[in-house]
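Hi there,

I know you've been waiting on this one. I reran it after we fixed the sequence typo, so this is the corrected version. Both the input and the resulting structure follow.
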Amino acid sequence: MVRKIIKIDEEKCNGCGLCANACNEGAIEMINGKAKLVRENFCDGFGDCLPACPTGAITFEEREAPAYDEKAVQQAKRQSQIVQESSVPVMSQLRQWPCQIKLLPIQAPLYDGAKLLVAADCTAYAYANMHEDFMKGKITLIGCPKLDSVDYSEKLTEIIKNNDIKSVSIVRMEVPCCGGLQRAAENALKASGKFIPWQVVTISRDGKIID
């Protein structure tokens, strides 16, 4: 079809990129320092890019060109938004180091008024939003009773007993070996002689919360 569409004079283009920024449809891109109309079906012919050009390199012309495809433009915008959102770095919510149960001290200022997260180390890999959903605002203690071949009950008991702990969250995988971590935390809560709010969350092997 013959329709009105922009024309870019590369001789006049100084490579400032203002036209590409002004084009809400994404029809223009900067290639090798020059503005180029790379998607003719994304150009609506309204010319938002014209007043942005400081050198007068952009004009209108009427010629054979594909029709403006608004659906394709909107789809490209949604895809771009998804990419931008996924590229935003996630901030670590780890508030202390070390985080392994066997390496953490029994008494330390970091426990003052703390909410404890006792987590199986695999949960951070299985559950994608571990930092925001579980670690945020908590002191994180991780371990694996199968790999460490230890009973964490005694150390966890001492940590809870000797510090001002406000709550305990236990996050484990659905696999049987994680039962050892849960039992250790539950036994520690009982042995500490304190009445502290606590909860258990189980993560499935495909990364979902199942209870």
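Quick highlight: The chain has a mean pLDDT of 91.

Best,
R. S.
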